[in-house]
Specification:
Elements (H helix, E strand, L loop, with lengths): L1 H19 L2 E6 L14 H7 L8 E3 L5 E3 L2 E6 L5 E6 L13 H12 L14 E8 L2 E6 L6 H4 L26 E7 L3 E6 L12 E6 L3 H10 L4 E2 L8 H5 L4 E16 L9 H10 L2 H9 L4 E2 L22 H11 L4 E7 L3 H16 L2 E7 L2 H10 L5 E6 L20 H11 L4 H17 L4 E13 L2 E2 L16 E2 L2
Parallel strand pairs: 1-10, 14-15, 14-16
Antiparallel strand pairs: 2-3, 4-5, 5-7, 6-7, 8-9, 9-10, 11-17, 12-16, 12-17, 13-17, 18-19
Helix pairs in contact: 7-9, 8-10, 12-13
Length: 488
């Protein structure tokens, strides 16, 4: 018996590494509140399911380009009003049912319905009708031309779902992707396994586990111990130098679509006064926040636009650190003083950054009360309930300046001129005209001091040096595992 045990142990040692070559445990800071990307705003949902479990008509590539997804091609009518999508044939959902044009009709009609709970309902607002021409052809008629429509369809909020299974998607998602949902151990991890019936190229990984570790110290320990083999959005940038010096690991630094902002409730008492918002903007020292909260990783921004976008305008000078100007504006606007509530979600950039921002605001005479909220609380109280004064959050959706045209959005900015500008942008296809409109939009929200614009979130990841295919940049909020593998 003793010899059998030794033999079994030896076999385990031999076979263990080989087994590990087709499985991966990947760390994430936040656990998603649910797994339905068509019914939730949290980035963590897409970080699990985008391109892995669910797919859309189109999809984002790692370079931010829009690529074919479930639609292998599409045509646009001469008037720009009708997009005809040609679907891939033979695609099935994970429950074995066929994915066809009727599922696309259901998905888009559901997303644009009056009672839709889609967090990006605006993506579908311009759709006038969706028609199944045949089983693999869908015609989408728009109310106005929109050259950005294939881009909109690449968002995680636009993935194709089936009426038979969408009701359980929050806890048991069923898509068409290369991985099948296997298990969710709430508070700990989500596990997915390779889809043997996938229509496209099979992924190299047979299994992947998304492990939720919010504490930076625990994330560092998990990577060092090998309990987690990759952490694409690593929460402890102060330890990256240690990983860089260790040949077992690779450090992956790239950019994200994450505009990290001091979101401001534009309808809250005193914050509805541009002088107060301007004072807050000039009280902020961006570099101090980047250095203190992010250990130098991050690019200062002065508006809600990514610096790597060709249409970006550097407006940081419009809200340069000027505490004396901030004090003067506050003395004029609120001579009796000002006290504000700062609600902080769990990410390190928010918690660490919030302490620094609070100190900077106090230095110009603003009293700040900090409340640390869990993600579900933040979504309920701040995002949906609009019960806040200030908060810090990264908006990781791509090219999303159009959220400022939504008066009911959580920071409640209501500017008819800006709304008209975005309406014009949405029907403009000429690249030069779109650039001009994008730049006008950036200047307008900067000059209105809608929010405090802090920095573009860097993507700082750590991985086992043998892993290849992880995205360096984050053109959308995703941990796309379709091209991830272990080196031989």
């Amino acid at each position: 018996m003793k010899h059998l045990k030794l033999a079994a142990a030896a076999l385990a040692l031999i076979t263990g590494p080989a087994w590990a070559q087709d499985s991966l445990t990947l760390g994430m800071v936040l656990e998603p509140p649910n797994l339905d990307p068509t019914g939730g705003a949290a980035a963590a949902i897409d970080e699990v399911v985008y391109a892995n479990i669910f797919e859309g008509l189109t999809r984002f590539g790692p370079d931010g380009s829009v690529r074919p997804g479930l639609a292998e091609s599409w045509d646009v009518s001469d008037d720009g009003l009708t997009y005809t999508f040609h679907l891939r044939s033979g695609v099935t959902f994970h429950d074995g049912s066929a994915m066809d044009a009727e599922d696309v009709v259901f998905t888009l009609d559901r997303a644009r319905a009056e009672d839709s709970t889609n967090a990006q309902k605006a993506l579908f607002a311009g759709i006038e009708s969706v028609t199944a021409v045949d089983a693999v052809t869908v015609a989408v008629k728009l109310s106005a031309p929109n050259g950005n429509f294939p881009f909109n369809m690449a968002w995680g909020d636009a993935v194709i779902v089936a009426p038979e299974t969408i009701g359980d998607a929050a806890t048991h998602p069923v898509g068409t992707g290369p991985f099948v949902f296997s298990e969710w151990v709430q508070g700990d991890n989500v596990r997915i396994t390779r889809n043997a019936e996938y229509w496209g190229e099979a992924p190299a990984l047979a299994e992947a586990t998304f492990k939720f570790i919010s504490d930076p110290n625990a994330a560092f320990a998990a990577m060092m111990a090998g309990d987690v083999q990759a952490f694409p959005n690593f929460p402890a940038p102060e330890t990256l130098a240690q990983f860089e010096a260790d040949p077992r690991f690779s450090v992956i630094v790239g950019s994200t679509e994450g505009e990290t902002i001091l979101s401001t409730n534009n309808k809250a008492p005193n914050l509805d006064d541009i002088r107060v918002r301007k004072a807050i903007a000039h009280a902020i020292n961006r570099q101090e926040i980047i250095d203190g909260a992010m250990f130098g990783f991050g690019t200062p921004i002065g508006t809600h636009f990514a610096p790597h976008n060709p249409d970006y305008v550097d407006l940081t000078g419009n809200s340069a650190h000027d505490p004396e100007l901030a004090k003067a504006l506050l003395a004029e606007a609120v001579p009796d003083g000002l006290s504000l509530r700062l609600m902080l979600p769990p990410p390190a950039y928010a918690r660490r950054g919030g302490e620094i921002v609070a100190a900077q605001l106090r230095a110009v005479g603003i009293e700040v009360e900090i409340s640390n909220l869990e993600w579900a609380q933040w979504l309920e109280q701040v995002f949906r309930g609009k019960d806040f004064d200030l908060t810090i959050v990264s908006h990781t959706e791509p090219a999303d300046i159009n959220i400022y045209a939504r008066p009911d959005y959580y920071f409640q900015y209501d500017n008819a001129a800006f709304q008209a500008l975005i309406e014009k942008l949405e029907v403009t296809s000429d690249p030069a005209e779109r650039t001009e409109l994008n730049q006008q939009a950036q200047r307008m929200i900067s000059e209105d001091y809608v929010n405090g614009y802090l920095f573009q979130l860097a993507k700082t990841g750590v991985a086992d040096a043998r892993i290849q295919g992880l995205w360096a940049n984050a053109p959308t909020q995703a941990n796309d595992l379709t091209g991830v593998s272990w080196a031989e």
